[in-house]
């Protein structure tokens, strides 16, 4: 079984995916972490982030891989763990350029499709491009202000600065961010995290009941 949770930046995808995965006793897969790790490695190596061939060779040379778990995903470059370095504002600012490269997208998609089922996959195009055959699909939204207020608890910048950066990233990520036609859209703004997880679980379990 595959459950997909897509949505805009800071809409709650990874927190909801983790909660749903723990309730179902299966791992979740955070696809954005692979784009973030590609960005971090590219920045560290001083590579121009729009040069796909050099970036891909660098990713493959560094054995970049995702370790999906229900409690939180980890990302490795060989023996080095990158996980705690992936949510900086520097990576936030560069990641859309890397995610726009078709060669990088194909590389990420191949890594994701090689993972053993079952799992909950979260990102932008899980229910559309990567796992169109998924059993249950969700798309999370929330206003830019609500999302910025949530992110402000995890970043050093103020709410207006974060809101502007989120709105810009929404714009840059538009191409791959459309909801699947068969996805259930959930506005997480008026809900608690637990409320969103319950709503997803109720839908996932409904056909099984
Ligand atoms: N109703 C809610 N639904 C989802 N996340 C919420 C909600 N309220 C607060 N949050 C918080 O919003 C923050 C951003 O969520 P996160 O899962 O990192 O989003 P994304 O993976 O979409 O970037 C987290 O700290 C999460 O706990
Ligand atoms: N399946 C995916 C996942 C992420 N991306 C891109 C779009 C985002 O700007 C970055 C980072 O994604 P991530 O989900 O980690 O970011 P947010 O937590 O939503 O801020 O990667 C993508 O293009 N396709």
TrEMBL record:
Official protein name in the record: Cytidylate kinase
Ranges for domain Cytidylate kinase: 3-205
CDD domains hit by this protein: CMPK
Catalytic activity, as annotated: CMP + ATP = CDP + ADP; dCMP + ATP = dCDP + ADP
Keyword field: ATP-binding, Cytoplasm, Kinase, Nucleotide-binding, Transferase
Localisation: Cytoplasm
EC number of the protein: 2.7.4.25
Native organism: Deinococcus rhizophilus
Family, per entry: Belongs to the cytidylate kinase family. Type 1 subfamily.
Top-level division of the source organism's lineage: Bacteria
Entry keyword Transport: no
NCBIfam families assigned: cmk (TIGR00017)
Any Pfam family hit: Cytidylate_kin
A single GO molecular function term of this UniProt record: kinase activity
Protein residues bound to ATP: 7-15
